[in-house]
Structure formats: structure tokens, C-alpha cells
């Protein structure tokens, strides 16, 4: 039995034991002032944290401002901060503070995904699985990014409940994609088989299982 199948029940039970992180707690003005000072001094972490405050809707210390969030995320993302790159990509994908631009979203997601950020890897898989206005469907890349996300091992704690579930979600998306009628008509099957074969040789059992299924 696949390891993800074995842990599904454990995941459901365990997650309920942790309180979900709340964003409703107001950030003290002194902390906001400190973040602003550090952000102005060029701290990528402070720029990202301040961007998070501007993006959220339920913090009385800062009025929601997607444009400001984009500005701050961009500064942090240009310094290589993966979390900021992912957050900026998400704003481009969802058209918040900027016109929707899936190509820009892919650009920023890719930078974060290449640093191992699982949220970005999963988001890339979803984007490439479908056609978009300026991002073409690409099953090879969708499989690649879903596989990378599914292969990650996340240690569960109350700060990363959402991330913890992404490997399972990626596995499910990958399984659904590889069994879809559209995929079976794709001209990319040989490339995907080769990718899964190589990933299997890197001792990733999920890829071994999917490779065997595609060759049956």
C-alpha cells in the first residue's frame, strides 16, 4: 500500500489536534513600526512580513492594501526570499493588486519552487495542468512539479498544517492526471514515462509506482 494511503487517516485525526493559525490577532503598532523600519533598511524578511499584513483583511493595525503588498513582496522576492516569490506569484495568479498574469505567476512560482518551496511546486503543477491565457498546458511540467511536491516529507506542526497536506494532495492530483482520458491522448506520454523512470532511479517510490502503471 502506498505510504500516502497509510497516513491519510492519521493526517485527518492529527490535524484536528492542532488549532489552525489565526490571522485575526491584531499586530501591535510598535511591531508594525519596527517592521517598517527594518523593511526600509532592506530586510527581505521584514518586507515579506509587512506585505503579509497588507494582504490580510482582518488586522486593524494595517488597512488592506494589495498594491502595497505587491510592492513589498516584489522587493523581498528580488532578494531571493522564496516565501515572497510565492506570495507575489499568487497575487499575479489571482489578480490582486496587479492585473492577472499567469506567466508572471509561473515566473515567480518557479523561482520559489526551485528553492524547494512546496506550495510553489504544487501551484505550478496546477497551472501547467490546464490551459491559461498566457500559459500553455504542459503535462510534462505538471507531472514534474506535482512529483516534486509529492516527494517532499513535511514534519507536522501547528505552523505548517497546510503544507503538511500538500504531498498527499499532489499525489492525488498526479494520480488523477495520469489516469485522465485527456492525458492518455497526449503526445507527452513517452517524455513523462522517462521522467518518472529517472525519478524512480532516485529512489522515489511514488514515481516507481506511477511508472509501472503507465507501462501496464
Helical residues, percent: 55-70%
Give the radius of gyration: 19 Å
Task: Write the H/E string, N to C.
Answer: HHHHHHHHHHHH
Uncertain stretches of 5 or more adjacent residues: 3-24
> Roughly what is the average pLDDT, rounded to an integer?
88
Number of helices, where a helix is a run of at least 4 consecutive DSSP H or I residues:
12
Q: Largest sheet at a glance?
A: none
Strand content: under 5%
Q: What shape does the CA trace take?
A: elongated
Total E-strand runs:
0
Instruction: Calculate the terminal CA-CA distance, rounded to whole Å.
Output: 18 Å
Q: What would you say about this model in short?
A:
By secondary structure, this protein is mainly alpha-helical. Helix content is 67%, strand content 0%. It is elongated and about 60 Å long.
Notes on the protein architecture:
67% of the residues lie in helices and 0% in strands. The chain is an all-alpha fold and 216 residues long.
Layout of secondary structure:
Layout: H1 3-15, H2 29-40, H3 44-55, H4 66-78, H5 82-94, H6 102-113, H7 118-129, H8 139-151, H9 161-178, H10 181-184, H11 189-201, H12 205-214
Helix pairs in contact: 1-9, 2-3, 3-4, 4-5, 5-6, 6-7, 7-8, 7-9, 8-9, 8-11, 11-12
List keywords for this structure.
216 residues, 67% helix, disordered N terminus, 0% strand, Serine Threonine Protein Phosphatase 5, Tetratricopeptide repeat, mainly alpha
Amino acid at each position: 500500500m502506498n505510504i500516502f494511503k497509510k497516513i491519510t487517516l492519521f493526517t485527518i485525526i492529527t490535524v484536528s489536534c492542532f488549532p489552525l493559525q489565526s490571522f485575526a490577532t491584531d499586530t501591535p503598532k510598535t511591531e508594525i513600526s519596527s517592521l517598517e523600519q527594518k523593511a526600509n533598511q532592506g530586510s527581505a524578511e521584514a518586507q515579506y512580513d509587512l506585505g503579509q499584513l497588507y494582504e490580510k483583511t482582518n488586522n486593524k493595525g494595517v488597512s488592506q492594501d494589495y498594491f502595497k503588498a505587491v510592492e513589498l513582496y516584489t522587493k523581498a522576492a528580488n532578494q531571493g526570499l522564496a516565501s515572497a516569490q510565492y506570495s507575489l506569484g499568487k497575487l499575479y495568479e489571482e489578480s490582486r493588486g496587479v492585473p492577472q498574469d499567469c506567466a508572471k505567476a509561473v515566473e515567480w512560482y518557479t523561482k520559489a519552487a526551485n528553492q524547494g518551496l512546496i506550495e510553489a511546486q504544487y501551484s505550478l503543477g496546477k497551472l501547467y495542468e490546464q490551459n491559461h491565457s498566457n500559459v500553455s498546458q504542459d503535462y510534462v511540467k505538471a507531472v514534474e512539479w506535482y512529483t516534486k511536491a509529492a516527494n517532499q516529507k513535511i514534519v507536522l506542526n501547528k505552523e505548517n498544517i497546510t503544507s503538511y497536506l500538500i504531498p498527499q494532495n499532489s499525489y492525488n492530483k498526479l494520480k488523477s492526471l495520469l489516469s485522465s482520458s485527456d492525458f492518455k491522448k497526449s503526445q507527452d506520454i513517452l517524455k513523462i514515462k522517462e521522467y518518472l523512470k529517472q525519478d524512480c532511479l532516485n529512489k522515489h517510490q511514488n514515481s516507481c509506482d506511477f511508472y509501472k502503471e503507465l507501462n501496464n
